[in-house]
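All the exercises in this workshop are built on plain-text protein records. An example says more than a description, so a record of this kind follows:
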Amino acid sequence: MLQYFALLLDSPVIIAAIFTVGIGGTFQYGFDVSVMTSASPFIKEMMNETFLQRYDVSLEEWQSSLIWSFTVSILCIGGLLGSLSASLLTAKYGRKRCLLFNNFFAILGSVLMILSQRALSFEMIMVGRFLYGINAGVSLSVHPVYLLECTPKRLRGMVGVTVATFISFGKFCGQLLGIRELLGTLERWPWLLGFNGFTALVQLLTLPFLPESPKFLLLERGDRQACEKALNKLWGSKDHSAAVEEMLEEKASLQNIQNRSVMELIRDQTVRWQLLTIIVTFVTLQLCGINAVYFYSFDVLRAAGIQEDQLGHTALGTGLCEVMTSLACFMIVENAGKKALLFRGYAGMTVILIILTITLYLESLVSWMPYCSLALIFLFIFMFSGGPAGVTAPLPGELFTQSFKSAAYIIACTINWVGLFLVGMLFPIMVEKMDYFCFLVFLVFCAGCALFIWFNVPETKNQTVLEIAEAFKKMHSKSEEKSGKELTEHKINIINLYETKF
């Protein structure tokens, strides 16, 4: 592990890139997901005041809930739009320029959020959330691509985890700034919702000092001199000819092959297992139950005797747990390997969900059972952020060659946003109908993903895209040969049996 830290410390520009791209990248997504919880009572009150002032009508409970649900969910619509447009923008303008322009969506959304209370307009919050969604959708697609393409092969696993680390950090900051001692008050909540604009401004002012992705410069623009200049700035003034040759090898393998569309990726049999890996892991990322665990954390804290006015402060522990575990994952990923982290994470989460369902059921019968449930919630967050959360986000950039990469990120981000939207809309209904037994649905996804990874995904540690593709090919050609042999033997046995009878 120390050798990887030494390599990272030898590249201070890479460290600067991690923080610069992260704070205006996936941090925004994490912050957007968590920040609305603290502001919800103030926004609902403003909605009611708006209707009273405009139409002299007071909103009913179901009407307020409907408007609120749409205000929260519109982030996903913007996110999906941002994800779908990201590949076209990166191919035309480059990774760095795309990230720079993307900050203007967050800044404009921030201005609308800050002015919404003064204008007494909840519609401004909706438009602001939509713009935040576009910003987050582009960030989720471009942030990992840019960062991984700027990083040496031996550090890609470690640096890739920082994509999820900034999501966790964003969630934690949303929880922290939302407490009443900071911005979670009637007077200051617009500044809480507008905080995204400040982080976007930080990236807008610092990102110009970083170079464009070397891989983009060489493979997309064909500018070897600019690529080598970018490598020298990112990795230090050394001989980077081996890295350039690797990129040229990939370019040669993709000679006369244009960027593939989503439909071409779906139809291409040579990358079938890589595509299935992306679909399974990203579907499970949203349907693994992490949102359900966060939802039940307040109920468990109440049952454990935490006072109502202290719930927000205590719940900060869940966000801090996710951040700290993500940092731990950053330290161990290069030694443990991504396949191991994914499998152990989902297998452990499956077991925890089974036990958590039992402890929640027994809470009304056993006085000390809420403390067991609370410990399991922290353990579940630990398993999630220590494996799946940190490893899943950069997978499309690692499993696919340059021609398929944009299409792969479109599919991954579309699954992510649609999954988030469905969880947001259906989860309250599941809780109402199934109560804590809703965890049984999520454990099916966790168990299924763990088994899929164990039997169908090779280790990707310290390997190039072409080496990973070869590993997939070997893994599944063996299984297909084995199944073919078993089928042939079965046919021979049937023929022999038939001949024996007659």
